[in-house]
Write a structure and sequence with these properties.
257 residues; Rossmann fold; 7-stranded parallel sheet; 8 helices; 14% strand; binds NADP nicotinamide-adenine-dinucleotide phosphate
Length: 257
């Protein structure tokens, strides 16, 4: 199992670099000497260092034209990191189908569409890595996260199957499973989407869960995720899953027992 190690100065394209895990991953690859194409829905140059090895490009993973344009202007890339994602926490019965579709458009179909846009060049060159960022919700069942979990579980299955298929072409496909970070913009970016998703009947159930969210035993730092993505990129052992952050690593260890 496993392909050749990537040699020379390589190029990584990362989605969702305006904040959080994606931003830190862009900084990390840049600090390791890589060419970085940091993509964002709304490009901002000021969040990343100025460098001739760093380009900021517009990319909305739910928009096919945006995907085609970004991949075209990026030139040959060696690694794709599918990091962009959105969340929702709430009672399933109160979650509108429109919200479910919105989550799948970004977390699931966005990842699949991005991957399909780069696979031809990887296959032709017999080289390349796709790293899909899911979540520790795939490591254990968590309440009030049914739709979000579904959108990420789909990518776990997609990635595991695709890894077997693309191994034939020396292309590696990996999963990074981050734990919970209160420090990224994930919760505030989802605040509007989550408003009103705990109906009265669910309040006594949800209250202690939200209280425990507020006092987590361990959390994930953006640097944990950046380092795990980097490790996954360079891994040639055939390892598929890379939990990231103390909470995710603890869940993965409990899971494997
Ligand atoms: N934070 C956590 O607790 C946690 C835990 C486990 C897994 N994760 C996963 O980690 C990844 C990064 O999350 P984060 O915590 O760093 O959250 P974040 O700070 O909200 O960053 C998410 C990024 O995704 C971008 N994005 C959203 N929709 C997009 C779209 N349609 N096209 C392109 N980019 C889009 C956002 O861009 P805008 O600025 O344009 O909105 C932002 O740059 C996500 O896949 C998330 O599911 C997060």
């Amino acid at each position: 199992m496993g392909g050749a190690i990537l040699r020379g100065v390589k190029t990584v394209l990362i989605t969702g670099c305006s904040s959080g895990y994606g931003l830190e991953t862009a900084r990390h690859f840049h600090s390791q000497g890589w060419n970085v194409v940091a993509t964002m829905r709304t490009p901002r140059e000021d969040v990343l260092p100025r460098s001739d090895r760093l380009r900021v490009l517009a990319l909305d993973v739910t928009n096919p034209e945006s995907i085609t344009a970004a991949v075209e202007v990026s030139g040959p890339i060696d690694v794709l990191v599918n990091n962009a994602g959105i969340g929702v926490v709430g009672a399933f019965e109160a979650t509108p189908m429109a919200t479910t579709r919105e989550l799948f458009e970004t977390n699931t179909f966005g990842v699949i569409a991005m991957t399909q846009a780069v696979v031809p060049q990887f296959r032709e060159r017999r080289s390349g890595v796709v790293v899909n960022v899911t979540s520790s919700v795939t490591l254990t069942a968590m309440p009030l996260a049914a739709v979000y979990t579904a959108s990420k579980m789909a990518i776990e299955g997609f990635t595991a199957s695709l890894a077997l298929e693309l191994e034939f072409f020396n292309v590696r496909v990996k999963l990074v499973e981050p734990g919970y970070s209160p420090a990224t913009r994930f919760t505030s970016n989802g605040a509007e989407r989550m408003a009103g998703l705990i109906p009265e009947a669910y309040e006594p159930f949800a209250k202690p869960i939200f209280a425990s969210f507020a006092q987590p035993a361990a959390v994930t730092f953006a640097s944990d995720v950046a380092e795990a993505v980097y490790r996954a990129t360079n891994d040639t052992s055939g390892q598929l899953r890379f939990p990231a952050g103390a909470d995710a690593v603890a869940l993965a260890m409990a899971h494997s027992k």
